[in-house]
Amino acid sequence: MKKVVILQKYLMPYRVPLFNALAADRRIDLTVMYYGTKEARRQATVYPEKRFREKASRVFSIQGSYESNYDFPVSLYNDLKKIVSRCHHLHP
Fold first, then answer.
1. Strands 59-63 and 53-56, bridge-based pairing
2. How far from the centroid of its chain's Cα atoms is residue 26's Cα?
3. Contact between 54 and 31 (Cβ < 8 Å)
4. Which residues fall within 8 angstroms of residue 36, CB to CB, at 6 or more apart?
5. How do residues 49-76 score in pLDDT, each as one tens digit?
6. Which of 41, 45, 71, 43 is nearest to 58 (CA)?
7. Is 34 buried (19+), middle (13-18) or exposed (0-12) by CB count in 10 A?
8. What is the per-residue pLDDT across 7-52, written as a single tens digit (0 to 9) for each?
9. CA within 13 Å, CB half, 91
């Protein structure tokens, strides 16, 4: 089984079917990792049913303008290291 990590700033509903299809493949162990915050104009609240693993990194965010957030994913590096270490543990 291949470990696949997809980095996304945030999740949008139209991406969920693609991620569900990837997660349904028995050859893929999928994790979707988020590293940012949504702009005010992108506050989707209804999502199709999600069938994949998710992880949100801690983010320090500064609100710029209406469409601009300045995101600093403070835990992203450590979060990715944990996923990689689990892979090496499974496949030495």
1. unpaired
2. 20
3. yes
4. 9, 10, 59, 61, 69, 71, 73
5. 889 999 888 888 887 776 677 888 888 8
6. 71
7. buried
8. 998 888 889 999 999 999 999 999 999 988 776 666 666 677 889 9
9. 6
